[in-house]
Design goal:
alpha/beta; five-stranded parallel beta sheet
Length: about 260
């Protein structure tokens, strides 16, 4: 931090999200934008080159998410971090537990200003800087070792938050950086990649059956083999899903069966 200016790096894969943060920062001249990045790889290089004092860090990004990025930079130069997230399941629980700063999309100008004030207080005191780094280190350790499956999913739906129990889900469908959670008679949209969600679900209850599909094993009622080595799964509600060859062995292993049935 030079001449009381706080160098800021904005990291988010959504251009509009970066624009919003940069625009809001214009009302706080002590915060100087040193750069913006659209992915974790760019951000890692920018942190090494610019040594920012503060990073606005999106949790969910393709290829390298925000927490993975922190794992790579924490031993070199760990700036103050304000996480930015849109109802990421692990993030919300972890941020509250480890008392780190985060902004929940969409956030207000007042909430943004409150986060900046916390950063200023933290950067002005070496003891609080050390505390913040310990909090981040603890967060990362928890992230690396997390094993308990999700018990609730937080779903933003029509201006309210719905708490959804995973066992009520029939199947899950990928849609770029989102997933569709199909339940009895309704589908919910969640801003979460399929890979991340798969890692958080109970592997005894859910199985990946296709690069874009996860199924609740308790809902499967019938399997019909196809000539190409794939299967059609029929769920209790009549939904038909494809079990691809790439996931076939893993699927049958969860039932303790040899795939050559």
């Amino acid at each position: 931090m030079i001449n009381n200016l706080i160098k800021v790096l904005v990291v988010d894969d959504e251009p509009l999200a970066r624009i919003l943060i940069i625009e809001l920062l214009k009302d706080f001249p002590e915060f100087q934008v040193a750069g913006e990045c659209s992915n974790g790889t760019e951000a890692l290089e920018a942190v090494r080159e610019n040594l920012p004092d503060l990073v606005f860090l999106d949790v969910q990004m393709p290829e390298m998410d925000g927490l993975t990025l922190l794992e790579k930079i924490q031993k070199e130069h760990l700036p103050a971090i304000i996480f930015v997230t849109a109802y990421d399941q692990f993030a919300i629980r972890a941020f509250d537990f480890h008392a780190v700063d985060y902004l929940l999309k969409p956030f207000s100008k007042e909430r943004f200003e409150k986060a900046l004030l916390r950063v200023k207080e933290r950067l002005s005191n070496h003891s609080t800087i050390d505390l913040a780094r310990r909090q981040i280190s603890s967060l990362l350790e928890n992230y690396q070792n997390k094993s308990a499956p999700l018990k609730r999913l937080f779903i933003k739906d029509k201006g309210k938050i719905i708490l959804l129990e995973p066992e009520t889900i029939d199947w899950i469908e990928a849609d770029d950086k989102y997933v569709h959670l199909h339940t009895a008679g309704k589908s919910y949209l969640l801003r979460q990649t399929l890979n991340v969600l798969e890692a958080e679900l109970d592997p005894q209850a859910f199985a990946r059956i296709h690069r874009s599909t996860i199924v609740n094993l308790a809902r499967v009622r019938e399997l019909n083999p196809l000539f190409n080595g794939e299967y059609v799964l029929i769920l209790a509600n009549g939904t038909k899903l494809t079990l691809s060859r790439n996931y076939k062995n893993r699927f049958f292993e969860q039932f303790g069966k040899n795939p050559r049935i």
